Amino acid sequence: MRNIEIKAKVHNVEEICKKAEELSGGPCVIIKQDDVFYKVNDGRLKLRRFPDSSAVLVRYSRDDEGGPKLCNYDLLEFSADENKKAEELDNILQKCLGIRGRVIKERKLYLVGQTRIHIDNVQDLGNFMELEVVLEPEQTIEEGEAIAKELQNKLGVKNEDLLKGAYMDLLERL
């Protein structure tokens, strides 16, 4: 699975949410997420838990650069009924790999075509915007980058606010 991502600092949450709602044609979905990152040699690995007891293991890799960037990822989903399996997996990964850290956030999700717009409030960090252009198998990276840049401009996100890396990286610098 592949997507093109852009992440940026947000200075005015109300303004960017209003623009995102206009672009999506409707209100956001609010999602609370609690991510545990594990220590790995390549890419990133996290177990994301949701309030309904469901979870998803996410392995991803992307370059840590500003602007649009390709992200390759794999998902392993656990329903709320499989919560015990997710807990067992978490225990095994903690024992084998160790914990790198934890990211807790409230995400406002807006959908615009094939793009997910996330307006995130990250505990201890503040407010951010993330675009994820989910690429179709036949789509080029350049096509995804063009979609991301167009939405970045429509949302009024400035290049100087673009971020490199993940929230986990920012938290480690605190």
TrEMBL record:
InterPro entries the UniProt entry points to: Adenylyl_cyclase_CyaB (IPR008173), CYTH-like_dom_sf (IPR033469), CYTH_domain (IPR023577)
Residue ranges constituting the CYTH domain according to the UniProt record: 1-173
Annotated source species: Papilio xuthus
The protein's name in its UniProt record: CYTH domain-containing protein
SMART domains noted in UniProt: CYTH
MF annotations from Gene Ontology: pyrophosphatase activity
PANTHER family the UniProt entry points to: CYTH DOMAIN-CONTAINING PROTEIN (PTHR21028:SF2), SI:CH211-156B7.4 (PTHR21028)
